[in-house]
Design a protein that fits this description.
30 strands, Rossmann fold, homodimer, 7-stranded antiparallel β-sheet, alpha/beta, 20% strand, 23 helices, Dna Ligase, domain 1, 36% helix
Amino acid sequence: MVHPLDVFHRPASVAVVGASDDTEKIGGRPLRYMREFGYAGRVYPVNPRRDTVQGMQSYPSLTEVPTVPDIALIAVPGAAAVEAVATAARMGVKGAVVMSSGFTETGRPEGAALQAEMLAHARDAGLRIVGPNSQGLASFHSGAVLGFSTLFTEEPPADGPVAIISQSGALASVPYGILRRRGIGVRYAHGTGNDADVSAAELAAAALEDPELRLLMLYLESVNDPESLVRIGELSRRNDVPVVALVGGRSSSGSRAAASHTGALATERRVLDAFLERVGIWQVHSVRELVAATELYLQDWQPTGSNLAVVSNSGAVCVLAADAAEDAGLPLASLLPTTDARLKEVLPDFASTTNPVDVTAALLTDSGLFGKVLPVLGADPGVDACLLGIPVAGRGYDVERFARDAAEFAASGTPLVLAVPQPNVAAPFVDAGLPVFEEESSAVAALAQYLAHRRRMARADSLPRPALTAGPSGAPGRLNEAESLARLAEMGVPTVPREIVSFPEDVADAFTRLAVDRVVVKGSTDAVSHKSDLGLVELGCASAEEALAAAHRIAVAAALHGVVLDGFLVAPMLRGLHEVVIGASIDPVFGPVVLVGAGGLYVEALPDTAVLLAPCTADEVHEAIQSLRIAPVLGGVRGAPPADVDAWVKAVVRASEAMAASETVVGFDANPVLLLEAGQGAVAVDAVVLATT
Amino acid sequence: MVHPLDVFHRPASVAVVGASDDTEKIGGRPLRYMREFGYAGRVYPVNPRRDTVQGMQSYPSLTEVPTVPDIALIAVPGAAAVEAVATAARMGVKGAVVMSSGFTETGRPEGAALQAEMLAHARDAGLRIVGPNSQGLASFHSGAVLGFSTLFTEEPPADGPVAIISQSGALASVPYGILRRRGIGVRYAHGTGNDADVSAAELAAAALEDPELRLLMLYLESVNDPESLVRIGELSRRNDVPVVALVGGRSSSGSRAAASHTGALATERRVLDAFLERVGIWQVHSVRELVAATELYLQDWQPTGSNLAVVSNSGAVCVLAADAAEDAGLPLASLLPTTDARLKEVLPDFASTTNPVDVTAALLTDSGLFGKVLPVLGADPGVDACLLGIPVAGRGYDVERFARDAAEFAASGTPLVLAVPQPNVAAPFVDAGLPVFEEESSAVAALAQYLAHRRRMARADSLPRPALTAGPSGAPGRLNEAESLARLAEMGVPTVPREIVSFPEDVADAFTRLAVDRVVVKGSTDAVSHKSDLGLVELGCASAEEALAAAHRIAVAAALHGVVLDGFLVAPMLRGLHEVVIGASIDPVFGPVVLVGAGGLYVEALPDTAVLLAPCTADEVHEAIQSLRIAPVLGGVRGAPPADVDAWVKAVVRASEAMAASETVVGFDANPVLLLEAGQGAVAVDAVVLATT
């Protein structure tokens, strides 16, 4: 399928408005690049002051080019750029790439106004705009370089399986340069700029339709197009093209810098994290990580597990690789006894046949050792991936043979990474197309990312599509506790049985109706959230009289604090094994999310929570709970019975589905939710719901 | 001062036992290296089968060389190596470097026996041995290459300010190669092997006496020489030579691999961590980190704080550098209003004058911008270090000028790191001796390490020397609770007031004597540690009768569980704001340590503790407490008063001093220690002490 935006990747013709004879100018570079990099379509320089530009016939205005170009590349400043877009729109040009700056990125109202005007011209006519303030798009399979990055001169392009799509020009150029210096071909290197119309994510979705693409790198600073990100995730999985994303502005200062630069994220960062995880996109935190695993992604492996086997001719590298594997969360594979026996056949007596496998300096007398050991490891069903570390191999070693043996092993399907610091030793491995790193920790980290990313992609197919709904419109209000618990129960969260009464004197009857040993009496109000801090909660009332007295004290406390009570809530005094929380809110970008975490007194001071997009699955909730600090005690420690985590999970899943569908609730906080013994449930005993009705 | 081991670095003469004519053999390479790398002392090849070796006169045996050599370098295998050591010892040779293998590293008893025999010969005569199983020592200021690393051929040496001292030959060669490829001179590259006599740490201490050394890298797998590590720390600080250490075997599998390889650490890993921190050595976790900050250490800066200013011509790099700074714990500097004003003078209107400073593409028209901006930032007292990021700078930029301006700024004393991915743009910065990284996260991480390490070194001078005492000899036993509390009180830890009685019927009188509202009654025994799990603790007895009844129930519970009670402990029922723990033990390598942490039910299941070497200072304990997860609540949250952290700290300091001096106590566990309100103290209410008497 050809994506509508593919016209930016393979235009039949390009007009360059503001074409320059100077091949170093912004209006000159694209002409030179298209000529040098083999663009086969028609190119129309537009420059009212010249008859020819760089040897090509020039046209005084866009309207005078002989055919309607597919793309107008715009290099004229400010108002002239707006005018050019208007003209292109009138002519029926399909796409414009606006390199000119002076728009919203200035942070000034006049810039924003110009951008809005430009956009209005384009929208009316169906013209799609990339930019403004764009470094431009570069497509090296077609030679359509609609941009001015200087790096294409310094690091000449080669078409290849990688796409780099970035909102920042610099962050398109930097990974492009790093990959090219590593000899990796890059098909797309796009710096989109202000994303006034076409977003970086939309262009990425278009690139993912390219059947020859193997890996897509994405740099974003503002995330305002979650639908396209969902689409990217779907295409990534369908077409088996992993997507690695770097989203700048994680830190508070980074986020401020991003706000001053292109426009900040309006979203809580960990909602973005949960979103990317849900759709199968791998998030990295630096340029280093963005490019680190590239060579792994370009292999033809279909990895399943993550158990690592390590082989080296150095004991120290074995030790450090094992340390690195633990850091990266890769378990060391336990080898079968038959594997051990086969290793003993090929290795000298003093070598280690447990994992890590230290072949020792015996390698010097038998250059075939790696070729013997690797297939033995690969045949062990417990081994999912291998690391081969060769810290030193000078003269006397048959390095070419090592590389041949390694390449043959990797071609058999088991992921293999190399840790080879010496460039001359690394060269034959690199030439064989293998992923080679300077040392073991980098190799292990890249392998761990690759394996985890493939697992995440495989899993994403079974996860629900994020709701992304904007939530109810209208101003939400806080419901009182009785209403909150009732609403929560409707949403599928089990709540404590309770009696709601209007006056203190009715509390004694409520006690009797509940027919339990002890009750809690609370003042019901929508005015405060930490009720117990104000004396509005009385625990452990053991008789109707005590309950009545408690209600009177609560009424006094409310009066002292000026809190309006709308009644009293009387509920059985339950004792759970653990206090936990369930929460929900609506993220301005990603829609409804739910939260699970530890409850209790320090829920705010010592937060221990995880966020999930709504709707979510039971598996996801279980995994989120396992990520909590409190997870180890939920199964029961020091003789305590296991808690009913399943009931908690069920309540969260139901709440997430209700949030995804709700037309009134904009958030809730159920705290504490008491976890009873396994099989006996989880019960929300206190809650605040925010809703529009 | 010349260190006694300096004979290994500048021997007047070297005999090579097992000298080979083949320059690729282990007995041949050192001869060739000493010739090629300018060793000026006398070299005596020893080979009974040849008259000349590599053109030099050869001697049939060590005894026949014309003078007693300073060093015997031994390349003959097994028993012959032992014989050579014995001969060298008899002759009065000062040092032997034994490259031969077949000793303890084989894991076989005959290897260990051979090594012991070799050692006995040497010790008797005062001969110091490096090795066996050593790749050898290389000293490039003297040309004394007493080793066979193949890497010296492939990466030719250059004398310089860095020492690499490693127990592993590979881990001497790998950093050597990486540094040499970065153009950094290396003076010492030692791979010590089995450390039967001279340890890697001892050699490191010798190297630190070298006045021209600027940085020392250490790789260890077994840490059995803490005295030398303390000495390294002292010399490092006295001579201002930072020491960066990589200690393999952090993970359980890495530790197993290290055990099979050279001998495992017998110590808990975080005790090692605390030790290295105490003595001012920086610990890294990979080869990547080991070499990452080298160029920073070789600068002439005297950094103080860690507030970072970021400058770039790319907004995205500003954003990513700010993110990286937060990851690395470097605060972004707040600029003074005068700094902002001065930046506004030099930068165009649309540039950002807050930190990070985005000079924008205006750099293209003013190549002096960095040279104007950096000094303004450096003059701001809030700025401690700078990062300059130049993601793209092709033709049209005066890169040479950027580098000159940056070098001038760095020379003025403010630490500066560069993030410059393009090799041709980076080149002039590298040539100017500046630390250049491929991207901002690597630059920030290296800077953070460098700054934190310098702070750690500055601070280490004021910290007490670790006791390193082995602790009492004799088999320790568990004291019962009464004895434990008494012993703890002697050590300076405040304990709960208590009455100790022998029989249940005395408990009522004890209640009366204590004259408090409520008491705790406990069965006293040295047989169990979790007494409450067995029903041996009764809380909240409000009368003499209740206390008596509780004592009877405890007696029954003890009988049911077969626990022998030696009496009853009656103590006031105290309520603290928080339950914490104080612990102590004696590490087999590093001696007495103390532990602080969160107390309560989940002290084992959800550990939240920190370890300190004894004796320790109040500052250290405060810092350790601040590192705990519970730290934020100790100051009081949700209306709770602040807890008496100072009293906790004081108790820990006293206990650490007592542990360092104790001749009987081998450990204790005070849990819980109740923290009362600030000013009211901290009180241990339960404790187990392990002691020899």
